[in-house]
Write a structure and sequence with these properties.
40% helix, 5 helices, alpha+beta, 4 strands
């Protein structure tokens, strides 16, 4: 999915990867991204359980189409398996691998 290519770049360009390696939110809550600007530009979110789900509201067109075909914002695009306390490299590799396994 074209819109998801920016996820790895956004994680790598900031310290956001730490939010996935050591989530501080409760189960089912959004671990990353937090701000509405990031949610709009990235179009998806990762929850405590490391599930990648489409965001609500204004998002990239390809994600919007996927969201409409797959039961809305609670549908899981892919699951990212990240070791707790993982390094930046481990997080980025896990996200890259998960993006290969996107449910079409």
């Amino acid at each position: 999915m074209k819109a998801l290519k920016s996820v790895g770049r956004a994680l790598g360009d900031s310290s956001a990867w730490k939010k996935l390696a050591n989530p501080t939110v409760g189960r089912g809550k959004t671990a990353w991204p937090k701000g509405s600007t990031e949610l709009e530009s990235i179009g998806d979110r990762f929850n405590y359980d490391e599930e990648c789900q489409p965001s609500a509201g204004k998002i990239p067109a390809s994600l919007k189409v996927w969201r409409e075909r797959h039961s809305g914002t609670h549908a899981v695009i892919t699951t990212v398996l990240i070791k707790k306390g993982g390094t930046k490299l481990e997080v980025l590799q896990a996200v890259k691998e998960a993006m290969r396994n996107i449910k079409a």
